[in-house]
Design a protein that fits this description.
CATH topology of the largest domain: Rossmann fold
CATH class of the largest domain: Alpha Beta
Oligomer: single chain
Strand content: 5-15%
Number of strands: 6
CATH architecture of the largest domain: 3-Layer(aba) Sandwich
Order of helices and strands: EHEHEHEHHHHEHEHH
Distance between the termini: 17 Å
Largest sheet: 6 strands, parallel
Helix content: 40-55%
Length: 232
């Protein structure tokens, strides 16, 4: 029997290394593929590129920025999704102020000579306190940002989010909504609202994790994806 395809969509300034542990852990239940969302002028364009990667029907998991891409896929082609995981992400549209701030940050980085993608202040925001000094986690994140560089940062940071709530409310496939218990970027309260909006969605709050759950708690993320694929 052919195993189902699972497409994993990384976050902003993340590459395939984000999901390395989950790809290794899930090979007995699915065929994991990590999408590249570093190119594209809109979330709709990025979603179309992931759909080109997918088979007729496939399971999908999106993390953070990748979760926004996954929601756009749910808007464009919900009939192609067998299962959906949304992790440490946001469902609402950009406010004009947030979009302006982000684009100003992108413009500043674009003008800069030196790009420091993951420093100490970023680690404090993105990681749970117990992981901020974990050099293995920090070096993996820094490695991804260094490989991708400022052009990808600028391109991804400038994209405008749509309101994905109508697409989520219309979903009929099995869905899990998950985030770190100490996520300060996309907090648990937001994920509770997201799970309540999606019919039949399961909510998972992952202990001892901030925003970077696939790296901070790799086994817990692999387990929730395994459980999702086993149901429905």
């Amino acid at each position: 029997m052919t195993l189902p395809q699972l497409i994993l969509i990384p976050g902003r300034m993340n590459d395939a290394d984000l999901f390395r542990d989950q790809v290794d852990a899930l090979g007995d239940v699915c065929r994991p593929v990590v999408a590249d969302v570093t190119r594209g002028r809109s979330f709709a364009e990025l979603a179309a590129s992931v759909l080109d990667l997918g088979e007729d029907r496939f399971a999908l998991a999106g993390f953070s920025f990748g979760g926004i891409v996954a929601m756009e896929i749910a808007r464009q082609a919900p009939e192609r999704l067998t299962h959906l995981a949304l992790m440490d992400t946001v469902m609402g549209p950009d406010t004009p102020e947030a979009l302006a701030d982000r684009r100003a940050a992108a413009a500043m980085v674009e003008r800069s000579v030196r790009f420091n993608g993951f420093g100490g202040a970023t680690a404090a925001a993105y990681l749970a306190p117990q992981h901020r000094g974990d050099e293995a986690i920090v070096s993996r994140i820094r490695g991804m940002t260094d490989r991708l560089g400022k052009d990808v940062f600028v391109r991804q940071t400038r994209l405008e989010r749509a309101d994905n709530r109508p697409a989520l409310a219309a979903l009929t496939c099995p869905v899990v909504v998950a985030c770190g218990a100490e996520d300060k970027i996309t907090p648990p309260a937001h994920h509770r609202e997201m799970a309540a909006l999606i019919p039949g969605a399961k909510l998972v709050i992952i202990p001892e994790a901030g925003h970077m759950t696939p790296l901070e708690q790799p086994d817990a993320v692999a387990d929730l994806l395994r459980d999702l694929l086993a149901g429905g």
